[in-house]
Design goal:
single chain; mainly alpha; Rhopdopsin 7-helix transmembrane proteins; 79% helix; globular; membrane; olfaction
Amino acid sequence: MGANSVLLITIWLEASLHEPMYYLLSFLSLLDIVLCLTVIPKVLAIFWFDLKSISFYACFLQMYIMNCFLGMESCTFMVMAYDRYVAICHPLRYPSIITDHFVAKAAIFTLARNALLTIFIPILSARLHYCGKNIIDNCICANLSVSKLSCDSIALNRIFQLTVAWTLLGSDLTLIIFSYTIILRAVLRLKTKGAAAKALSTCGSHFILILFFSTILLVFVFTHIAKKKISPDIPVLLNVLHHVIPAALNPIVYGVRTQEIKEGIRKLLRRARENRK
């Protein structure tokens, strides 16, 4: 939360960072903050104060926000991978392709795609008849954890969850891998001393983080769908880790490691010290 907030404030206040790439970084930070605010306060309330209850409507609202914003984060990773592809493979055309107008269209697409496709997840769960216990085997209102409490068949919920996961995350991950494959080929052809190593270091850390984000979410979905008996604590742990670790690593990998971001933070700190004097 703190790192993402610092990144947002830095990009907002530093005029030199008012560029498309940094707008994408700020959008990613905003998504991380919303996800943390949706999930982490309730998780902490459960562990610290044993406040386990949640209202029916709040549960399905949390479910929708989680699914919607996770899909938006995946889509943002895809757009950022395309940004890196253009920057490395077509540097001369970068200013004409990656513009403020492009970022605006990408943001609208990201919002519309995920808001529309994920709205059916809580709707399908809410239509079920809940006549048994009302205790979720999870600390988050995940779709399948809630649906399992129903006395009705949840086959449609399982199928739709898997379909959405493959449609959104699967397509995003495929395009991301394709982009970074082309980037890798282009980087290996660079003959400038140190250029290839620098590009590999930056893009490599980006790709590892994206792969972690996608993999852990898909594993979480499959642990719910798989018929094999597994420990009920595994999906819970994966769910919490998926909301905590990427949100903590994103500002470090994408922000702090960027020289312009670090310089922007230094400028803001210098201004703050000067204002105090």
